[in-house]
Structure formats: structure tokens, C-alpha cells
Amino acid sequence: MRLYLVRHGRTQYNVNHLAQGHIDVPLDEVGQNQAVKVAQFFAKNPVQRMMSSDSERAFETARLASVALGIPLETTTLLRERSLGDLEGSPMTTLVKAWDAACSDGQSRFKVKPCGAESAYEVMDRVSTITDDLHLDTRSTAIFTHGMTKEVILCRLLGAPVEVSRSFRFDNASITELRWAQDVWVLEKFNNTDHLR
């Protein structure tokens, strides 16, 4: 069984370095082209199950692949990006300052919730509903989600603490591939963008 973790295609918010969170931002022209190339990847590497965040940018990235394979697309709020509360739509530099301020008294960066944002631990709990049962399904699966959510999902699959998530960065429309073998997930390809060339 194989598992593919796919980050959504590019949006104008990505270009402008704005925090998206739960804001429903569509793919820009580059992102739409990336979605076509992701669909072409899965036409050559078919899966039997596709799951996606219900956010427009993830759904639109997944939809073409779903159509190409003729399989249903399961959407869920569990795969959404981290909620950023009142910080959604802000420049990324504002996010960094908000987290730095929230951690100034020694609190964990992964537990704080500045301006009503979701903590990294809360995102980990949310996605565990999906990740903890993936190995029970023998179907190869593609999951379309978001940058930070994908970081946390990978930690969960590899048995790493949520703090490790900051070590991972994913390009738009990148595909990370894992294989279930001897009771563990084996990471085979990380942040692969070869299909976009």
C-alpha cells in the first residue's frame, strides 16, 4: 500500500506571503496548471482512494486527479489548514511576531494559540482521526491538504513528536510518498516536484 501526501497548488496568497488558514482562497493560474500536472502524475501512478481538505485550493488540486482516475473524492474538514484565528489574511511576518510574543514567557510554540489560532497540538489531534487508521486500509491513497497540516501528518505517520514538524517544508503541489511495510510507514520520496517540470 502506498500513501501520497499532496500540498495544494499555488494561490495568490502564497505569492504575496499572506496567511491563509481557513480562508477559502482559489488557485491562481500557476496553481491551476500545477493541478493539471498532479492529475497527470496520478494517471501514471493510480490510487484507489482520494481524500481532500474541503478548502477550495486543496479541493481544486484534487478534483482533476479524481476525475482522471474516475474515483470519488472524499472531502473532510479534518484535513484543513491550521486555523489562524484573527491572523488569517495577515502577512506571514505578522504571524511570526504573534507566535514570538505568545512564547515570550517560555510557553511552547506548539501549544500557544495567539489571536485564537489553532495550536500545533490541536492540529495533530485533529488529523490523527485519519492517520491512525490509514494502515488498516489496503488501498493506495492520496491525501490533498495544506503545508502545515501536511507537516503534522508526516510527523504522525513517522511517529515523531509534533515539534519535528518545523523541520519539514513543502512546495506547492509537491507530492510526498510513503509505503506501508512491516508495520511502519517508510518515507520514499519527500517534497517531490519532478511532475511539475
Structure explained in plain terms:
By secondary structure, the chain is an alpha/beta fold. The chain has a single domain (2-196), classed as Phosphoglycerate mutase-like (Rossmann fold, 3-Layer(aba) Sandwich). Helix content is 35%, strand content 18%. It has six helices and six strands; from the N terminus they run βααβαβααβαββ. It has helices at residues 12-15, 29-44, 56-69, 92-102, 120-131, 147-158, and strands at 2-7, 49-53, 73-76, 141-145, 175-181, 184-192. A six-stranded mixed sheet has the order 3-2-4-1-5-6, sandwiched between helices. Helix 3 links the parallel strand 2 and strand 3 (73-76). Helix 2 runs parallel beside helix 3. The protein is globular and about 50 Å long.
What structural keywords apply?
197 residues; alpha/beta; Rossmann fold; six-stranded mixed β-sheet; 6 strands
Overall 3D form: globular
Average pLDDT number: 96
Using DSSP, what is the number of strands?
Answer: 6
Spatial ordering of strands, largest sheet? 3-2-4-1-5-6
Given helix and strand content, the structural type is alpha/beta
Low-confidence runs: none
The CATH class is Alpha Beta
Helix content: 25-40%
Element string (H = helix, E = strand)? EHHEHEHHEHEE
Which CATH architecture is right? 3-Layer(aba) Sandwich
Indicate the radius of gyration in whole angstroms.
16 Å
- Give a quick account of the main beta sheet: strands, pairing sense, barrel closure: 6 strands, mixed
What is the domain total for the residues? 1
What is the overall number of helices? 6
Portion of residues in beta strands equals 15-25%
| CATH topology assignment | Rossmann fold
- Superfamily (CATH H level) name: Phosphoglycerate mutase-like
- Ends apart, CA distance between termini: 26 Å
